[in-house]
Amino acid sequence: MKITRRLFFPTFLCGLLLAAIPAPAGPIPDDCKTGGFAIGCQAWTFNHYSVIEAIDKTAEAGGKVIEFFPGQKLSAEKSGIKFDHNASDETIAEVQAHLKQRGIRAVNYGVVDIPKDEAAARKVFEFARKLDLYGITTESVGSIDTIEKLVKEYGICVGFHDHPRRSDAPDYKMWDPNYILSVVKDRDPRIGSTADTGHWVRSGLNPIDCLKILRGRIISAHLKDLNETSPDAHDVPFGTGVSNIPGILEELKSQNFAGNISIEYEYNWENNVVDAAQCVGFVRGYGAKK
To answer: Which of the four CATH numbers 3.90.180.10, 3.20.20.150, 3.40.630.30, 3.40.50.720 does domain 25-289 have?
Structure first.
């Protein structure tokens, strides 16, 4: 067909518009999974170290995916450069190159504030797009309208995270899965919960019951096993604490959960790679039994 000027310009303009639309985020590939789950580390596990070191330690622990958090120093040599959604393309490329070298896939980013202001919120989503992330983790409930608009535009999932309830912060509601459900239930299905199971235990809740309340809305998980049920409990390797990790995994599987599981091990900070490796090994063994 001969392309005339009349046909060329509408086609050209349509191409420009399509090029401006972000490609939707895809699912986490199966080759990133261990024991049936995309399990790796939340870089916060290694917050005494740099992003580059966190990638290395995740690989050493046997994880295949990583969730970044905002503000971690880039590397031991570049401690003055912080890695977050304000990072330069050069810094992002450096991190991507190291991820590729170590065979680790970045899948999530948080907990990060997402502002109501669309231009400011877009910076977070653009950062996630450049890293080809599956999801973003936040507690910015007040920005839900902006979040939903950008989720629909970018195709990137957003999970609302829970910290423990505190007697000195009665207005904090994120610990309650029923509250999170009330926030997300009428929203785009790619908006839901980043289920921090350890913080639910610290809040006096049964994490399996919490997962059931949020059925179909679990975007990702910060999976923890704790030594006890008190607010002062600390992390222990999966299967050695009180959190019923097999039951949690079984419930996630029953919900056809397809998000990432981050090991956020907030204990033994200077030497927790072995502990994280035990957590990965537990999930690997769970999958082998199934």
So the answer is: 3.20.20.150
